[in-house]
Automatic annotation (TrEMBL):
It comes from the Archaea. Residues 5-119 form the Tetrahydrofolate dehydrogenase/cyclohydrolase catalytic domain. Belongs to the tetrahydrofolate dehydrogenase/cyclohydrolase family. It catalyses: (6R)-5,10-methenyltetrahydrofolate + H2O = (6R)-10-formyltetrahydrofolate + H(+); (6R)-5,10-methylene-5,6,7,8-tetrahydrofolate + NADP(+) = (6R)-5,10-methenyltetrahydrofolate + NADPH. PANTHER family: C-1-TETRAHYDROFOLATE SYNTHASE, CYTOPLASMIC, C-1-TETRAHYDROFOLATE SYNTHASE, CYTOPLASMIC-RELATED. This is Bifunctional protein FolD. One of its GO terms (molecular function) is methenyltetrahydrofolate cyclohydrolase activity. NADP(+) binds at residues 164-166, 234. GO terms for biological process: L-histidine biosynthetic process; methionine biosynthetic process; purine nucleotide biosynthetic process; tetrahydrofolate interconversion. GO terms for cellular component: cytosol. Residues 138-288 form the Tetrahydrofolate dehydrogenase/cyclohydrolase NAD(P)-binding domain. Catalyzes the oxidation of 5,10-methylenetetrahydrofolate to 5,10-methenyltetrahydrofolate and then the hydrolysis of 5,10-methenyltetrahydrofolate to 10-formyltetrahydrofolate. Keywords: Amino-acid biosynthesis, Histidine biosynthesis, Hydrolase, Methionine biosynthesis, Multifunctional enzyme, NADP, One-carbon metabolism, Oxidoreductase, Purine biosynthesis.
Amino acid sequence: MTDIIDGNAVASEVRDGLGDAIETLDDAGVTPGLATVLMSDDPASETYVSMKQRDCAEVGIEAFDYELDPDTPAAELYDLIDDLNADEDVHGILVQMPVPDHVDSREVLRSIDPAKDVDGFHPENVGRLVAGDARFKPCTPHGIQKLLDAAGVDPEGKEVVVVGRSDIVGKPMANLLIQKAPGGNATVTVCHSRTEDLSEHTRRADVVVAACGVPELVTGEMLSEGVVVVDVGVNRVDADTEKGYELVGDVEFESAEEQASAITPVPGGVGPMTRAMLLWNTVKAAAEAEGIDVTL
Ligand code: NDP
């Protein structure tokens, strides 16, 4: 029997687990605050931001919502970030990516106070992660670590193949998995679009993390029996449904499930964990900013 790893259930546990920390902060008169900045009229980005705000409200984090017209000069975005950096009620800042072309996304990430960088993308925080001294683990790979743990999968000593080398998923995932720490200690191969024979790598993996943004790229015949499959992909493909599309992952679920001992579904796998870990990082940021000890 293949274990279908239930991301909604694990995310719900993570959110419940934040309750004590939020109460401790509340006793000290502190409400964790997350500022979201949206500079796009892309419906998917709008949906992501509104889901994040709803998540905040559910657990007792105050969400501060900022929307800038996509034509706004970059300088106004930097001014807003400066204000949020200085705002004591704001413990975490999230600028929804992608930003418009006239804004340099790297400069945006650099302008956020690293202590409020709850996405974990500021170069200082990337450096700390690589050095094994993470302040904020990026939400998607951190969520995957929690999912694997909840499914009883310890990466230690295992061959893990990460398909994708983006700054937000593939690279930090690989970095976390090679850390000399719980949830790490794996032997990691990172594959990408220039990898010559992807299936040669995936076939010898004990765990495959697929984060390439190519619908159903990883199929059952590329996997060995008993593999654990984590599907990060969220791809809209045309389908004969009411909305005219359906969501599929980077893994072909049916064929992969036949080989896998455990697999995450899309939707309902990694996605809810990414959202939950953003809340986790915001509570951590609030506790550290206020110098209050909490258990996370
Ligand atoms: P990016 O497009 O930034 O990166 C994709 C990576 O996959 C690149 O490194 C690319 O290689 C590699 N790649 C592309 N094609 C292939 C191929 N044929 N074989 C091997 N590697 C390939 O994507 P993201 O990392 O941002 O996202 C990946 C997926 O995860 C997307 O579907 C995205 O929607 C989803 N996602 C889901 C989240 C969630 O919470 N569930 C959160 C974030 C992302 P190269 O570097 O050579 O171009």
